[in-house]
Amino acid sequence: MLRVNSLNVSYGDAQALWDVTFHVREKEICSIVGANGAGKTTTLSTILGMIRPFSGQVEFLGSRIEGKRPHAIVDLGISLVPEGRRLFSKLTVLENLELGAFAKQARPLAKQTMTWVTEIFPILEERKGQLAGALSGGMQQMLAIGRGLMAKPKLLMLDEPSLGLAPLIVKMLFEVIQKLNDRHVTILLVEQNIHQALKISQNAFVMKTGKIVLMGKGGELMADPEIKKAYMGVLE
Amino acid sequence: MSDFLSFHTLSQILINGLLFGTMYGIAAIGVSLIFGTMQIIFIAQGSLIILAAYISFWLFLLLFIDPFLSILIIVPIFMLLGGGLYQVLFRKVAYAGKNPSLLIAFGFMIMLENLISLLWTPNTRAIKTSYTAYGIEMLGLQVSFTRLVAFVLAMLATVVVTFFLKRTLMGKAVRAASEDLGAATMIGIGTHWVNSITFSIGIGLAGLAGVATAMTFPFDPYFGFIFSLKALIAVAFGGIGSVWGALVGGILLGVIESLGFFFLSGVWADGISYVVFLLVLMLKPEGLFSGFKRIA
Description:
The complex is a heterodimer. Chain A is an alpha/beta fold.
């Protein structure tokens, strides 16, 4: 459903992405893994239209989207849960969710979507009057995902959702991602938590200094000796 | 001493300051809203207020439209003007950092001042209606009718703006964008759109403040810059981003000036407000009322 074709992106003189090419198929979980500064977040930002590539194409559901503005892309059904959550901390949980459905397509359906989201995250219903900034880290991540879902995305992009969360919460989080996928939300997951990410994804890409260096099925990559050595801290 | 400063006199000073300060307050709300999303001090706010004052002066003089009635004409026109102003002057430079926007606002202010003095001459003007000199006795205090009405209008405007920001989806989007513009963009809130809305409200409030000024005080084309400075001080008092804070900051400034005017002299009134401004910036830069719950 998403085809990224030889994407080149630079910040000023520094090129951040080099010929990045990959596909995300409908209803799958696809992961981009790799170390800090590998270009994973840049890739997501470019897909969402926050950054303009200087060459390459992004195609979503058959139409070209590179160069479109973020609100137009969100409207087409791509939603990003950004790194560090980026919630509106001075707004309530409910207000954050309502704003998630700001896109034109999603707005008329906001009420129904809200029911769907609070069914997945019942805790958000309980805390709806609280300020988002007052929630714990794990709950903030749930709210960030909930806000992303309010846009009724066909493709949900999650940027480092497990960052800074306690192991138990991380486990819950990956269960939630799996659950969302079971409900037919296509997921593009960016993670440093490679082990967990590969375990739940059908396809995965490894990025290194702005390039895709490896790709394969989630399980295959997990068994790859190179990956084991580089990212999972397995001793020879 | 008791003859010079009775309780009665002091109350009279306070009430005058309070009523005058609400003008600063409405100007400050506009400045604060625009600062929230654009991150610039919209320095032309005061000159737009004076423009509204002159328009209502003209409407009154040439078409015999009562200032109260002209509010209904001027505020909607100014709201449209605000949105248009953003689209024409600021849209192109919205992503180019703060300096271009600030310079454009400054240039626009100079242009307005000169346009106004060209159209209406630099002479001081005032609107004299049948009720301008009318006063009301309240608890033994003389309160000017027009100033009291201006005060009530300011309160109403603040309530309406707060309602918009707190209760409507558009208002929530404005608050979200002023907290984290990048995140707002990511969830599909158009930046230009939010900026247009804040300009529209800010300039609409300038229209209201302008008519209220015209009803209550004499004005000239160059008073606008002073007005912008006073609005800025009021915003600093109230803490940036707070609607009620800006209003209360404006009222506080009005009271301080009124006291300074009485105890020292008119010459010192401005000086005192700048000294207090500096003190606030030095001692409590986050605003006097921070720590209370923020409204917007």
